[in-house]
Design brief:
With about 70 residues, the protein is mostly helical. It has 2 helices and no strands. Helix content is about 25%, strand content about 0%.
Amino acid sequence: MVMPFSDKHSDVKEFLDTFKATNYTNKIDPPEDVQGALKMMLMQDWTLESIKRIVLICDFPCHDTWYDCFDPS
């Protein structure tokens, strides 16, 4: 999920409140696509004078075992 830039912290809070972490065992909440998230960050509406900073919030390790050492079994 991507949220357009905002200078209102209430908009960010409202956006974050729409998410719900669920149980990976039931395959409802799959591993995070960290690389895809970083790509989406770079595709946002940055101005030339912008200083790029990102907050990536995840509740599970990234895709596949070559990126992490977590074993969900």
